[in-house]
Amino acid sequence: MSKKRKTFLHRISDLTRIHHRAAFADVQQRISEHQGETPFLTLARNRYSCRSFSDNALTAKEINSLLEAARVAPTAANRQPVHIWAICSEEGLARIRAVHPTFGAPAVLMIGVKPEAAWVRSYDGKNEAATDAAITGTHLILQAADLGLGSVWIGAFDPVKVREAFPETEGFEITALFAVGHPSADASPNPRHTERQPMESFATKL
Question: Does 113 lie in the same domain as 16?
Answer without folding.
Answer: no
